[in-house]
């Protein structure tokens, strides 16, 4: 993996099932032709990834996947948990042997885990899968070391964009079929929404490390980066003209235009909840926030959900991300092989095999709260993605035409990964900067960024 912003063009973002669902019986995952590695005798595999109790459809579909996998692999028993990866406790759990054999981590974490040798190199097991070479290289890049060894399997990779409320656009006299393509246009649209409706025109997350996360993606759009690399040394770069321009954008929208609402200290749940209630015109998100708005926060008028590509401001770039499933370094070889079988079966094969994707979509569509067909970045090439799209079409229950600007615009942008070293530490210190800009009209941005730079350097040096 390179440690500089990715410069390859994104593959076309097309519709795919993003929620984990039913996997039909796959002889490929249990038979010798597609066997990614043999296990030595019975293995009990503890895995993260079970959906929470609030997602009844997801839990049912997950259990169906487990049942199918165990039927195809009678020597492997799956014990699933709803536990989440926690960077604060992971090292202690790893040392004590209490962590699961398959862990689900956000895309900010793999590079640190790889560099600290806390996760297993799975290349040999993965390469035994016949479809390994067909995986989109972009989705493997954040999971790889400098030598090209791969340490995990991605699920539902995504690129950030602009979510917007089509009804509020209409009320403000804006065309919902022509969403903003630049940040100047975002500013103008946000001002119109704030002036002509009772909603905030644009909202930016600002706490729980999410303020720094969103400032990073905004900095990418302005042409900047948040780190530089010299050999093996990665240094935060938090005092650049681009990050200052991004913060100036927020300052002007907040204080000059008064288009960002009265509540500023918000996390993602807060923003999506308000968006679902029709109180937010625009925010930076992914197509997957459609599911959050509908399922978690009861958005009834989902036909008003619109999604555009990340607006430009000189950078022509957007942040990529997703979930990653990895194996702790202390897991033995037999369980590593079983883990790769499970991860390919549950997360890769459903995005490769049209029959599996169709079965998955049919099962999810039975739940009225499910979102089937929400676009994502393809795991494989365009030819395979077209087959998946056709297979799930009868059960798609989202308004795909409202995602057109995202699916057509995202391939024109450069995909940039999250910071490869200490992303969460960088996000944490930048939260303070974002909060100050949004709550103090005369905030000293230069001083704030200088302090953030010093704190980020200190935290990386001690990690």
Task: Describe this structure as you would to a colleague.
The protein is of the alpha+beta class. It folds into 2 domains: 231 residues, D-Maltodextrin-Binding Protein, domain 2; 166 residues, Periplasmic binding protein-like II (D-Maltodextrin-Binding Protein, domain 2). Helices cover 41% and strands 14% of the residues. It contains 18 helices and 13 strands. The strands form 5 sheets. Strands 4, 5, 11 and 13 form a 4-stranded mixed sheet that branches. α2 links the parallel β2 and β3. α9 packs across α17. The radius of gyration is 22 Å and the shape is globular. The N terminus is likely disordered.
CATH superfamily of the largest domain: Periplasmic binding protein-like II
Q: Write down how many β-strands occur, each being a DSSP E stretch of 2 or more residues.
A: 13
Globally, the shape reads globular
Summarize the biggest pleated sheet: 4 strands, mixed
Oligomer: single chain
Mean pLDDT: 87
Gap between N and C termini, in Å? Answer: 21 Å
CATH class of the largest domain: Alpha Beta
Q: Which percent range fits the helix content?
A: 40-55%
Q: Which second-level CATH architecture of the largest domain applies?
A: 3-Layer(aba) Sandwich
Structural class: alpha+beta
Low-confidence stretches: 1-33
Helical element count? 18
Computed Rg: 22 Å
Overall tally of structural domains? 2
Q: State the CATH topology of the largest domain.
A: D-Maltodextrin-Binding Protein, domain 2
